[in-house]
Amino acid sequence: MEPDDSTLWERSRAGHADAFTALFELHARAIYNFCFRRTGEWSAAEDLLSLVFLEAWRHREKELPPGKVLPWLYGIATNVIRNRRRSERRFRAALARMPVAPPEHDFGDQADERLDDERQMKEALARLASLPRREQDVFVLCAWTGLSYEDAALALEIPVGTVRSRLSRARQHLRELDPSCGHEQSGTPSVEEALK
Amino acid sequence: MNTESFIPPVRDLPPGRLALRTQHLRSAIADNRRFHGLPFPSTPRVRLVPALVALAVLTALALVPIGGASLATRAIDGVGGVWRSGLPLKAQQPRPYQPGDKVWTTEPPRDGSDRVAITIPCPNGTDDAARKLFELDREGSPINEVNCAPGSIPTSAIPPEVELMKSHLPPSHPGDKVWTTEPPHNGIGDRVAITIPCPDGTIDAARKLAELGRAGSTVNEVDCR
Fold first, then answer.
1. Looking at the whole model, is its pTM more than 0.80?
2. Tens digit of pLDDT for each residue in A121-136?
3. Are B150 and B120 in contact (CB under 8 A)?
């Protein structure tokens, strides 16, 4: 039986690199897609994925409630993306030390789809950019990533009530920006549901 | 496009990239002790502690007086072997007026400390240091020591008298000369010298020269008898 992420995290906190890399493999896809939702670039998302886990390792002394590793990682990702330029500077030396990547695998059959993803994502992000940064954070976590209010609160280190109010304001702002968007859209399945 | 109902695309990492990134992560973790760009796992707050301790030790070294001289002064003594309580030790000064030699103060510093030094380039020899010291003195500067940067004095700038003295006289003893810091004020000739007794060595000559300079004297050389 595979250990759950809380167990892996506890072992990571004790300094076990194997447990941490297992945690990475467990949540890499979720964080990778989250980073794409914030940047609209698959290649940037991949780099950010590494940075998020490097940052998580740096903060491995953090004690987390059971089952809350992924929300916490979303919180780190949110901060890393927010401070993207500064973080990139900070981690540039780290990335430079990493082994040279072997020749790219050919995923040409997905290249067009990925480009299309990026076009759509950038369009959505352009609309989202009109919201205050704090509302963007909550909206992406709750609406696009499917986190509960409680998990989003943990990720952003804010009260649950603040998550609710910010999400409500974000949705209101988006509706004002896009009159075609009605309340009937609230039943749209989240991305996490789509992932399952 | 309806932003609120937009469902962002979901994809895996490109083939092989997860394994590669896992390898990178392992490498970074294994390397963390040698890692300077990324402070694993100690936080900046933790890293500040040794820096603050070092700062406190250095401050203590510089400020705590022991036996009339600060530890910093004593450390300088240990390295240079030429300074005690603001006065040069004649016995420890190897040769007068050599490149890299110090040009000492003529009187105790005004601010109560025992040494306020600067180092300057001396393309014209130790006269540059002496001239600078007098200029500072006239301006009321608390600086009481001007040193020539080692290597900044060309051999040709060493006055021939120094070379002569080096070869004929023991250094820093009565009889040594303390040269002028500037051309004589009267514009006649280039040397107006007096000779005085120097019970404390050449510092007496230096002190006298400074006094004369402040008084506007044309004397530009004081020799020890």
1. no
2. 999 999 899 999 999 9
3. no
